[in-house]
Amino acid sequence: MKPVNQTQISFSSNSVNEGYARAAVAAFLAQLDPTVADLSDIRTAVSEAVTNAIVHGYKDKLGTVYISVKIFEDGRAQVRVRDKGCGIPDVKQAMEPLFTTGGEERAGLGFAVMQSFCDSVRVSSTVGRGTSVTLTKHFTPRC
Amino acid sequence: MNVQISYKEGVMTAKLSGEIDHHSAREMREAIDDTAQKLKPYCLRLDFTNVPFMDSSGVGLILGRVRMCGFWRGRVVLCGLSQNLNKMVELSGIASVAAIERRAS
């Protein structure tokens, strides 16, 4: 299916950009006239994915995070968050709730949150090449 | 400052303001811990009334404070959670380690 609208943004993996990233995605998706709850869900999921890219993907270095957002005719939105960082050796393990390599202050809930706040989460990763997380969410129009 | 701290009779309240993510959580954590480690309150109240957004970094922030207060047998109470924040709190199962004060309806 071809998207009816799409955008791309990229930014440095500075943690201060986490707020910019979720705000930019939410601003673009506003054209779907989403409910407050749906918009909050996608903002949260994007925040998790971007934080992963910054904290884990580019663990010891600065890189670029790429986001593409696509809107489809049926009200579906697809957000892809990509980094060219270190990659995840074991995606299945990384997606387990409470698994974290981020230390005591990280809850290890990133993927669990993405999965419960979106309809689907797809992860592809190659060690040394980077990670791509694709979030899909259907937006029901407000009545 | 995005953390306002007050203290009365063993209860320390940290009123948080702004969005909580991995970036902002660090500063909030430092502000809370600086005071809490000196006062060792038996109750640390985290007030989320002025927090419009929180991702799982907020959960990490809460869990870390529960762990810290455990050193002096203090407890953590969460209050002022909006519907959005509540969804995150429920998903995380944090209610088993911190008390949640509901707004009177």
Brief characterization of the structure:
The complex is a heterodimer of chains A (143) and B (105). Chain A contains 4 helices and 5 strands, in the order E-H-H-E-E-H-H-E-E.
Outline the secondary-structure elements.
The complex is a heterodimer of chains A (143) and B (105).
Chain A lengths: L4 E8 L4 H13 L6 H22 L6 E8 L4 E8 L7 H4 L15 H8 L2 E7 L3 E9 L5
Chain B lengths: L2 E6 L2 E7 L4 H18 L3 E8 L5 H15 L4 E5 L3 H10 L6 E3 L4
Parallel strand pairs in B: 2-3, 3-4, 4-5
Antiparallel strand pairs in B: 1-2
Helix pairs in contact in B: 1-2
The SS-based structural class of chain A is alpha+beta
**Main sheet makeup of chain B:** 5 strands, mixed
Distance between the termini of chain B: 30 Å
Strand % of chain B is 25-35%
Q: Which two chains touch over the largest interface?
A: A-B, 24 and 23 residues
Strand count of chain A: 5
Q: Count the DSSP helices of chain B.
A: 3
What is Rg of chain B? 12 Å
The level of helicity of chain B is: 40-55%
Shape of chain A: globular
Structural class of chain B: alpha/beta
How would you sum up the global shape of chain B?
globular
